[in-house]
Amino acid sequence: MFATNPALSGLIEVTKAFNQTRINDIHLLSLGTGRSKRSYDYDHFKRAVLWLLYLP
Predict the structure, then answer these.
(1) Is 15 exposed, middle or buried (0-12, 13-18, 19+ CB in 10 A)?
(2) CA 16 → CA 8, 13, 20, 39, 42, distances in Å?
(3) Phi and psi at residue 20, in whole multiples of 5°?
(4) What is the model's pLDDT at position 1?
(5) Is 47 exposed, middle or buried (0-12, 13-18, 19+ CB in 10 A)?
């Protein structure tokens, strides 16, 4: 499969597979695979995404 937006393709597949699923009931996290010229400190990154643990 090739898609310019694989996250959107996945979202469409979920809504097709589960007919009763509403878009508002789905949480989507797209991390990407690109490169960054800036390096990130692990501890800083870990604190920055800690909010993910509190998603409903």
Answers:
(1) middle
(2) 12, 5, 9, 38, 37
(3) -90, -5
(4) 62
(5) exposed
